[in-house]
Structure formats: structure tokens, C-alpha cells
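quick one, 164 residues, struct below
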Amino acid sequence: MNWLTSLNARLSRWALYLACACLAGLLGVVVYGVVMRYVFNDAPPYVEQVALLLVISVAMFGASAGVRDAGHIGLDSLVAALPPKAQFWCKAAAEVLTGTFAVSLVLGGIEMARSTQGTTIPTLGLPEASRYLPVIAAGVLVLSFSIELLLALVQGRKVEASWH
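---
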């Protein structure tokens, strides 16, 4: 179990770094697009598509890091009012549901990538399927983090946040 915790701590930290880098890139590309459009009256056609890829990446990698570090929305006050055994089952159910969602992200992302495999993003020349790579990667991360959190819950131990 230590290897999974160690691996997931690194993966979560790198997912957060990647989300931050994509957010900085998004800021840069949007500012560049605005300046080119309104100052030089020469809007590059690829800015919108790059921004879209970066938004998807920020959302997916940021959310996956949030899952491991328990940064997602929860009903902690309601669960805290329950008896300990009910708290355990609520937390376990939340991890199982999160893992199920992660599997749907992976499978849905693969299906969407397959269905758009033959087309390209016109302004970038990249395969349309590349839009779904962050979704698939984030789904794999969320599944791994959910498994780790569920195992830790069963073993009665806490998982330390990656950014400490």
C-alpha cells in the first residue's frame, strides 16, 4: 500500500503542476489573442482551439488532484453528524461512486477519441482525438486516487495531501 500512496502523491502533485502550467498557458494565449485582435487587427485562427485544449486540461488535471487531496465538494457536516459506522459507509460509498465516475471518464474518453480519430482540428492540424487525452488521463488518475482512498479508509488511516 505504501507504493500506491507514494505513487499517487507524486501523480497528484504533478497533475496539479500540469493544471497550473496549463492555466498559465491559457492566460498567455488568451492575452496574446486579445492583443493580436484588438491592437493589430490580426486575430490568429488557432488561439480559440489552443485555449479550449488548455481549459479541458486545467479542469481535468485540477479536478483529479482535488480528488486525492479531498478538495472536492462534500457534505461533511451531514456525515459528521452520523454515527461512526454510518460515516464509514458514507465515505466508502463516495469513493466507490467517484471510482465509478472515473471509469466512465476513461471509457467515454476512449469512445470519443475513437469516434473522432479520423478528423483533425483544422487550425492546429492535430487529431481531434487529442481533445480527449486529458479526459482519459484524468479518469485514470481519479480511479487510482479513489482506490487508494478506499483502501486507506478500510485500513483506518489518513491519506496526506500531496501539496504539504
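The mean pLDDT is 89.
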